[in-house]
Amino acid sequence: MKPIQAIEICNTKRRSTMTKLMKSLAVALALLLSFQSQVQAQVGAPAREPWSDEVLHLAATLPIQDGGRVKPLSTYVGFTLLKMNGKRTVVLKGAGEDGEDFKLDPMSWFLDCLFYPGLASNYTCFVVQDTEVLKRVGLSVSGKRKRDTFSYNEIQSARVALFERAHQISSIDPKDMTPIERQTLALAHNLRDFEDLIHFLDFTRREYPVGGSESLREIWGGKERALLGGVLSEFDAFLAHAKEMQGAAMQNVQSPEVQAMSQLMAELGAHVEAGQSSLALVAPKLSKELAPEWMTPTDLIREIIVIEDAQDRRDAIGVLTGFEKLRLNVDDRATFKKELEALHAALIASPTERGEYGKIESEVAFYKNDLFTYALILFLLAFLQQCALWIMPNAAGKGAMWLTRSVWLFLSLGAGYVVTGIVWRCILRSRPPVSTLYETILFITAVAVIVCMVIELINRQRIALGAASILGALGMFLQYKYELKEAASAGDTMPSLVAVLDTNYYLAIHVTSITMGYAAGLVASFFGHAWILTKVVGSSWNTREISRMLYGALCFSLIFSIFGTIMGGVWANDSWGRFWGWDPKENGALMICLWQLLMLHMRMGGYIKNFGLAIMSILGGMVVAFSWFGVNLLGIGLHSYGFTNGVFKTLVIFYGIEICMILIGCGWWLSQRNKTPGAQPS
């Protein structure tokens, strides 16, 4: 191979943006097998010193391009670990003081993967929902529960079979996959992501052949092999030597000189290829309009060859040697911190100039503050206080007054945390509060809680307070559940949107209004449950007041549902050139409007009374759930981007509970009617 041809090996392929596992499993298997012996050699790595807060913060605030947007490294790491482990911490059993379990935070886990891969390979960070997944690829799981966690070293003996099975499954439509097949594919994705992390710094570990010929040994001071930093320190001289050889020497491609140069370039090129699925931490120096795609560190090896500006080449070499210095000084924490500070400054310089770094620190703070967890705790405390009010034999007195005030305090703080979190997310992404299904959960929870609190201010029956605490807690539990699904599917809860969903004025009004209608519809459904349970258990609650609250929530929901549906048509006309196309999502919104109109007309016409209104409101909640999540499962139409695996089972459980509640209500109605023949219970 000719020297210049060897150099051009590193110029022919650009970084792919396709999904990591799906883009080329066959190539990935070959690369990963070549690395296996390196990991096994480090299994016995000693325990390391704890990472300091300063180091963790520096690493967390490094920018990375992932999923079409620039985000903090801590966001990427947190969701990667959440996807693998089902939570954002790794529990090391018996690793703490006195043999207690020790919890590892996401950034500490990530740094261990990079700098202590042998140690990290023993961390049980892979959650397997059903060990049948591993049994089917020939792995023994004796001593493990059906749902358990595994380390990389426990799985790697079956990794080839697992990847082969995942490659077969990948051709199946996601809607047609069995749960075991989905879990197999997810585990293969997670294993591949983990291997990308533990091999991220392999380009700094390998020694490259720089003494293959007399002229090369002369360039590198007589050395036979050198680490990447040593190679790059004399790379200008090497390139100059290659250009000199473009004459007669290139005619003899079998000469030792040409062969030595080709071998060096081939090994460098191999790391460029191996790093294609690595972390895109390096922003180009050009504007983001001219060069939107970021590079991995190994991409810089290719760039160094073609960069003409000497300063730019030195900067690129500085970044690569910066990673090498981190690895070489990892056990000297003071030096490591200094090198990380220098690398951090180098990596944020270009994003800052391109206007892509401004919100990194804010996003790190957003996830660190964990507002939605605090909101969940506050809603649960409010519910417990409300339960104490319900069971008090006497609802009057100072005790009840202070309990009521504490409920109001907890609900107000909880709602404040949710609203603050929603606003913070809007600022981070510069878009309306509702753009994804995950964001609808947050927004609907906030609206439902606030609506209930307003109703309580009007009604003063302490029933709406209970509704606010229950709906708030359920909403926060649901957002945690859905956050895990978003981590597995999109890798983030603030992803880049498809073009039709981004920066559209009519869409912002449509989704905000329609989700407010969803929220009020669910509040009305809750009051329907409260009405029936009050009658069935013989509670002292005033069912007439419950019906009034239900009616008010229903009217609120209808107003925003109709307005939101109309604005959806306006958006569709602006985006797709037609106001209405009988799309499943459009039909779902129309179903809510028609059902609520039917309820109100039947109530005003006397066809149903309070009991009928309660039953129909529960059915209305089922219609809202279908429009909210159910139609997305169809996977068809212009709104098919909302398809989410795993929701069907949850919806079936929800519908089962609602049907049972309706049957209980109908049973009570029939029993009352039999007691007084001819009477119509209300």
The radius of gyration is 30 Å
- Number of H/I helices: 29
N-to-C terminal Cα separation, in Å? Answer: 90 Å
Report the portion of residues in β strands.
under 5%
Please report the total strand number as a whole number. Answer: 8
Structural class: mainly alpha
For the largest beta-sheet, the strand count, sense and barrel status come to:
2 strands, antiparallel
Any idea how many domains?
Answer: 4
Q: Which spans of ≥5 residues are poorly predicted at pLDDT below 50? A: 1-46
Percent range for helical residues?
55-70%
| Average pLDDT metric | 83
Topology of helices and strands:
Layout: H1 3-8, H2 20-23, H3 25-40, H4 53-60, E1 63-66, E2 69-72, H5 73-85, E3 90-92, E4 102-104, H6 106-115, H7 117-120, E5 124-128, H8 132-135, E6 148-151, H9 152-155, H10 159-169, H11 179-198, H12 202-205, E7 208-209, H13 214-219, E8 225-226, H14 228-233, H15 235-244, H16 256-274, H17 299-306, H18 310-328, H19 333-353, H20 360-369, H21 371-391, H22 398-429, H23 437-459, H24 463-489, H25 505-537, H26 543-576, H27 584-604, H28 610-628, H29 647-675
Antiparallel strand pairs: 1-2, 3-4, 5-6, 7-8
Helix pairs in contact: 3-10, 4-19, 5-24, 10-11, 17-18, 18-19, 21-22, 21-24, 22-23, 22-24, 23-24, 23-25, 24-25, 25-26, 25-28, 25-29, 26-27, 26-28, 27-28, 28-29
